[in-house]
Design goal:
With about 450 residues, this protein is of the alpha/beta class. The protein is built from 16 helices and 17 strands. Strands 1, 2, 3, 4, 5, 14, 15, 16 and 17 form a 9-stranded mixed β-sheet that branches. The protein has a 4-stranded parallel β-sheet with strand order 6-7-8-9. Strand 16 and strand 17 form a beta hairpin. The radius of gyration is 21 Å and the shape is globular. The N and C termini lie far apart (about 65 Å). The chain binds zinc ion. The site of zinc ion has 6 residues, from loops. Zinc ion binds next to loops.
């Protein structure tokens, strides 16, 4: 028997278009039913009105409903350093500006306030999950939970001291403590994040692989971001970074290789054969003049590619809609082929591909019954988006994060008609401004 009324935990979304990502199609006159934290059904709207009569309804008459976007690489708390150091290459930016500022400022409160600012910004842009790499992950977890946002927190490993840890061993001790503290958390999981080949020793990489295997977690690291990194590795280790990482057991299906800009043919094949994933960060690569990752070629070889914003200090926005547009455009010019990375493929990179990289594609990344209800509604009714032949084209090439109106994470409506429901936006802004006064050279 079909009940005629439904409890408050059932909501029927009625968008103009459903863009499920998998299968790669556009559904019209369809509804998406949320029950508790889960997508209960995707079905014709007329059937939904009969089967779910009496359930709460959200009318989205000019909107495309997409899976919540997944930011495959960021340093969320660095939003507090946005615009503090621009227009310089990576090494100078890091060693003369970012690391000194962090050594003075980073604390659990800094990470909490910065992550909250980042979470609020990301939710307003349709991002429901971020893959982070930063210090004090439990403070980041508190902020993500408060915002009702999903996070995969990279347990960072470095060789040098920071306000978070004194040496490599202590980073591991703290990482294991974070895993114990979090336990089974519906919103927060972890990855193991040895920062980069130029900041992490062979011994620490071996320990990182061991921890990732033991706890069944992804490995999250910057790889082949700049040509300098490659040359320095040749001098110090007699090997390019990826060859060294391969020998240390890092290159596997657990690996999320962030950037992957400077790659020889055999390195591309190595990533493909290992089943490794790439987190492409086009804006940060352009801004730091690092280069352009050959993602069209990587995809052709079978590498799974997702997209990240990187931190707001090197982007300077946490905006996956602008990132996905850039990824597609830059891939075309780099490959010399306008057909490279078409809209639907680009859209998969910020949803299903990213979910795969995180080992979460059974729960995230597409609008499929049984998956978690992480969803974003994008209003394509604005003047600048007329006419609309295919919403996937508009989502990638024409629309922007300002057109995101509503967002759900595990069935909870965290953005409603462009208003955050979980976070006091004025409070977030006040906290960000108070930190800016403490940044060296700040306002
Ligand atoms: Zn990064």
């Amino acid at each position: 028997m079909i009940p005629s009324t439904f409890p408050a935990d059932v909501t029927v979304l009625e968008p103009r278009w459903v863009v499920p990502v998998e299968p790669d199609e556009v559904l019209e006159h369809h509804a998406v039913v949320i029950r508790d934290a889960t997508i209960a059904a995707v079905l014709p709207a007329a059937d939904a009105r009969t089967r779910f009569a009496g359930a709460a309804r959200v009318s989205l008459p000019t909107h495309a409903l997409t899976p919540g976007l997944i930011n495959l690489h960021t340093h969320a708390a660095m939003s507090l350093l946005r615009g503090s150091a621009d227009d310089m290459p990576l090494r100078i930016w890091l060693s003369e500006h970012i690391w000194p500022a962090e050594s003075r400022l980073v604390s659990p409160q800094f990470v909490h306030d910065g992550t909250l600012l980042a979470a609020a910004e990301m939710l307003r842009g349709g991002i429901t999950c971020f893959h982070d790499m930063y210090f004090f992950p439990l403070a980041a977890a508190d902020a993500a939970r408060a915002a009702g946002m999903r996070a995969v927190l990279g347990l960072v490993v470095l060789e040098f001291p920071t306000p978070y840890a004194a040496n490599a061993n202590e980073y591991f001790v703290l990482g294991r403590h974070v895993l114990d503290e979090l336990g089974d958390d519906a919103l927060i999981t972890c990855s193991v994040a040895p920062h980069a080949p130029y900041t992490v020793s062979d011994e620490s990489f071996r320990s990182a692989v061991q921890l990732a295997d033991e706890a069944d977690l992804p490995l999250h690291l910057h790889v082949h971001e700049t040509d300098d990194e490659v040359q320095e590795s040749l001098t110090q280790h007699g090997q390019r970074p990826l060859a060294r990482l391969r020998d240390l057991g890092v290159v596997s299906e657990r690996l999320i290789a962030v950037h992957a800009v400077h790659l020889l043919d055999e390195e591309r094949d190595l990533l493909a054969a290992a089943g490794a994933h790439v987190a492409h960060c086009p804006a940060a690569n352009l801004k730091l003049a690092s280069g352009i990752s050959p993602i069209a070629d990587l995809c052709r070889r079978g590498v799974n590619v997702g997209i990240g914003t990187d931190g707001a200090a090197s982007n300077n926005r946490l905006d996956l809609w602008s990132e996905v547009r850039l990824a597609s455009l830059v891939a075309k010019v780099a490959a010399g082929r306008a057909e490279a990375i078409p809209a639907a493929e680009a859209l998969a990179m910020v949803t299903l591909n990213a979910a795969r990289a995180l080992g979460m594609s059974d729960r995230l990344g597409s609008i499929t019954a049984g998956k978690d209800a992480d969803l974003a509604a994008v209003d394509l009714g604005a003047l600048e988006l007329q006419p609309c032949f295919d919403p996937r084209s508009h989502l990638v090439y024409a629309a922007g994060r300002q057109h995101v109106t509503d967002v759900w994470v595990r069935g909870r409506r965290v953005l409603a008609n462009r208003e955050l429901t979980t976070v006091d936006a004025n409070d977030v802004v006040a906290r960000a401004r108070s930190w800016a006064h403490k940044v060296p050279g700040g306002p």
